[in-house]
Amino acid sequence: MGRYVRCGPEGDTPAGLSAADLVGSWRGDPLGSLRLTADGTFTAEDWPVLDDFEKISTTTRGISGKGTWTVERGIGNDKDDRELDLEFDLAGEYPEGLLSGYAIAGEKGSLRVYTYSGDPDLCEFHTLTPV
């Protein structure tokens, strides 16, 4: 469930964004790393495993995994709104505990992807930035 009002730092997806703009290595804050490849596959290390509304912290359990990724139309009203969707090969083991849908914001060349960490009303995020 999302918020009705923005927290402030979310930002909009840049116009004309393509999947090619996301290919490369990403580092999460406070944990997790992601490598997106041009063939639509990814590898993740120290990826957060969460219970409902659990906040990501340095003590959150992390796993390594792989899967496929796509850039999908986001849920916003903006025609350029896009979301990074990660589908883990091992998601059956953690059906609801892996963060997988990330909004995309920033400018091309300095993008960030993010999702809420914990209760959306607290306005805390799991954010990944290019390495």
Task: Describe the protein.
This protein is mostly beta strands and 131 residues long. The chain has no helices and 8 strands. An 8-stranded antiparallel β-barrel has the order 1-2-3-4-5-6-7-8. The termini are far apart. The mean pLDDT is 84.
Helix content estimate: under 10%
Oligomer: single chain
Summarize the helix and strand pattern as letters.
Answer: EEEEEEEE
Largest sheet: 8 strands, antiparallel, barrel
Percent strand equals 35-45%
**Count of DSSP E strands?**
8
Trace the largest sheet across and list its strands.
1-2-3-4-5-6-7-8
Number of contiguous helices: 0
Flag low-confidence runs. Answer: none
Overall mean confidence score, pLDDT: 84
**Globular, elongated, flat, extended or rod-shaped: what is the shape?**
globular
Which characteristics define this entry?
globular, 131 residues, mainly beta
Q: Quick summary of this structure?
A:
The chain is mostly beta strands and 131 residues long. Helix content is 0%, strand content 44%.
Blueprint of the fold:
Layout: E1 24-29, E2 33-36, E3 41-48, E4 62-73, E5 82-88, E6 101-107, E7 110-116, E8 125-130
Antiparallel strand pairs: 1-2, 1-8, 2-3, 3-4, 4-5, 5-6, 6-7, 7-8
